[in-house]
Specification:
By secondary structure, the chain is of the alpha+beta class. A 3-stranded antiparallel sheet has the order 1-2-3. It is built from 5 helices and 3 strands; from the N terminus they run αβαααββα. It has one domain. It starts with 10 loop residues before the first helix and ends in a 6-residue tail after the last helix.
Length: 174
């Protein structure tokens, strides 16, 4: 009596042909993620380096910084000219939630805190990374932000308390 034989010639080749595109996609994906991570880390390092240098110079004379640091500084809460959809939506949400009213009313406290601890300064770096064509091409935008305090005008507690008292007293005489 003869046993039935199962033909398995070429199954390894068929499996390899099926799995090869998956491995190629994984290879490109790992390369892309590594490149993306490298760009994010470089942007973070540059933002941190620039804001630390700027803070050490008491947030003055941006021109003496390296050229890659120029034009990336702003005070937190300063208005920007960013008209992207995300920025407009964020501004509208802040107005809707009453955050902008709170920011206007807290200027006195901000002045006192700035006098005690220094004014805050943000450095923002933007970059983009090309996606491989096999996964849709295009760009991925990244941004990094670093924050530092600039103690530009040291003040004593007596002057700060007087400023706070004067600002909060209801009967200001001009």
């Amino acid at each position: 009596m003869r046993r039935p034989t199962h033909r398995q010639d070429g199954t390894a080749t068929v499996e390899a042909v099926i799995m090869l595109p998956v491995f190629i996609l994984m290879l490109f994906g790992v390369g892309y993620v590594a490149r993306l991570f490298d760009h994010v880390m470089s942007a973070n390092d540059l933002a941190r380096f620039c804001v630390q240098r700027y803070a050490l110079m008491a947030c003055e004379n941006e021109d003496s910084l390296p050229s890659e640091c120029h034009g990336m500084f702003q005070k937190p809460g300063d208005a920007t000219d960013d008209d992207s959809e995300e920025a407009v939506a964020l501004r509208e949400a802040r107005v809707h939630d009453g955050v902008s009213d709170t920011e206007k009313n807290s200027s006195v406290l901000t002045d006192v805190l700035d006098g005690l601890f220094g004014a805050g300064m943000l450095a923002t770096v933007s970059d983009s990374v090309q996606r491989p064509p096999i996964v849709g091409a295009g760009e991925t935008n990244i941004a990094a932000t670093a924050y530092a305090l600039c103690n530009t005008k040291p003040a004593n507690s007596r002057d700060l308390a007087a400023t706070l008292f004067d600002a909060l007293s209801p009967d200001k005489k001009e």
